[in-house]
Amino acid sequence: MPKAIWNGVVLAESDNTVVVEGNHYFPVDTINKQYFTESNTHSSCPWKGVASYYSIDVDGQINKDAAWYYPSAKEKAKNIEGHVAFWKGVKVEA
């Protein structure tokens, strides 16, 4: 089962990830929300839409903008709407 891990903590775990461009997108209801803080950061992808970010906080260590999601994905990316992906040192073990 794919899981996202940072600083020894499982941030998300699901058998229902969607893989897009090599990234596992986890359903939002499978993330451990206590480690996530909304960020003001946004980025844009021509075919997915505007991404929003979360910073991760594990035991007081912050990984800024280490997770992203598309709250309103464009039509071609609707399958990842409501899913969260990771980078910046977060390991995804499949």
TrEMBL record:
Pfam families assigned: NTP_transf_9
Native source organism of the sequence: Nostoc flagelliforme CCNUN1
Residue span(s) of domain DUF427: 3-88
Residue spans crossing the bilayer: none
Gene3D superfamilies the UniProt entry points to: Domain of unknown function (DUF427)
Name under which the protein is recorded: DUF427 domain-containing protein
Organism superkingdom: Bacteria
Lineage of the organism: Bacteria, Bacillati, Cyanobacteriota, Cyanophyceae, Nostocales
